[in-house]
Specification:
Elements: H1 3-15, H2 43-60, E1 63-65, E2 76-80, H3 87-94, E3 101-104, H4 112-124, E4 127-130, H5 136-150, E5 154-157, H6 175-183, E6 187-193, H7 195-198, E7 213-216, H8 231-249, H9 265-272
Parallel strand pairs: 1-7, 2-5, 2-6, 3-4
Antiparallel strand pairs: 6-7
Helix pairs in contact: 2-4, 6-8
Length: about 280
């Protein structure tokens, strides 16, 4: 799917107010999209949930606050700041219920003993493989997240989009809020503290000298901002999520998006022009 088509297709496909089978204003019938299958976790995930996670709590002694805020059942989105690779391990270890997050499909595709170990590890901590990128890959990732929530599962996402390399909290992109508004799932804000010290960018192994703090905030019901089809509702809901994360993490605010450095003059122009960061 070319990028211009992706820009048109995304809001229509995932925020349309039209019911399946209704007439599209352009004259085409709106059909029910094929629902993605929810990836069921097997024995490796059971091992991670009941063996690896307790072992990690013993070794790293994370400080966990606000576990009582997490709904025990039903769909929920954990929206967290992002400081380190181990953030996606810290949240499932600290949460009182299974948590799924999206991981690069390459982690599941290796060969030999190393590839097997990588698959087992990421499956054990609740990772779901997805192709990263824009276009159809981004739509597929969104569909997988929505399918997990509709199945009553919990997912963990990072509104900043990528890790903060300077420790500041960057502006949130609207994808998490969109997913919450579309599915009606409550959002539990999460503040991670110290994960960047336990495993800084470039480190091969986590350090045992530092401890991590995981703070769960009270669930946010974002429905009062409006429908998912409204850009204003998505922006206001995102700002509410980021304000809650900031209150938990105490990070300095960057007041900008955590953009990947532009590789060309055209990309630099696109970054400064007003657009919705999904």
């Amino acid at each position: 799917m070319p990028v211009p088509e992706w820009n048109r297709e995304y809001p229509r496909r995932v925020t349309s107010d039209l019911a399946p089978g209704a007439d599209d204003p352009r004259g085409a019938a709106v059909s029910e999209p094929d629902a993605p299958s929810v990836r069921r976790m097997g024995s490796a995930y059971a091992l991670g949930r009941f063996v690896v996670a307790p072992l990690a709590r013993i070794v790293y002694r994370p400080r966990v606050e606000g576990r009582a805020h997490v709904p025990k059942t039903g769909p929920v989105i954990f929206a967290s700041n992002h400081l380190s690779f181990i953030d996606s391990i810290a949240i499932p270890v600290a949460a009182p219920r299974p948590v799924h997050f999206l991981a690069k499909s390459s982690y599941f595709e290796g060969s030999g003993l190393g590839g097997w170990a990588s698959r087992q590890f990421f499956t054990a901590i609740g990772a779901v493989p997805v192709q990263r990128g824009v276009g159809q890959a981004a739509l597929d990732a969104l569909d997988q997240q929505r399918a997990l929530l509709e199945d009553g599962s919990a997912v963990a996402l990072y509104p900043e989009g990528t890790r903060s390399l300077d420790g500041r909290l960057y502006k949130g992109r609207t994808g998490v809020a969109f997913l919450a508004l579309q599915t009606g799932a409550p959002v539990v804000p999460v503040g991670l503290i110290g994960t960047d010290k336990v495993m800084p960018v470039g480190a091969k192994m986590p350090s045992l000298r530092h401890r991590v703090t995981v703070r769960f905030g009270e669930p946010l019901d974002l429905g009062h901002h409006g429908p998912a089809s409204s850009g204003r509702a998505r922006r206001l809901a995102t700002d509410e999520i980021m304000s809650a994360i900031h209150a938990l993490s105490g990070q300095e605010l960057a007041n900008s998006y955590n953009e990947v450095p532009a590789q060309s003059p055209i990309e630099r122009i696109k970054q400064v022009l007003p657009h919705e960061r999904r």
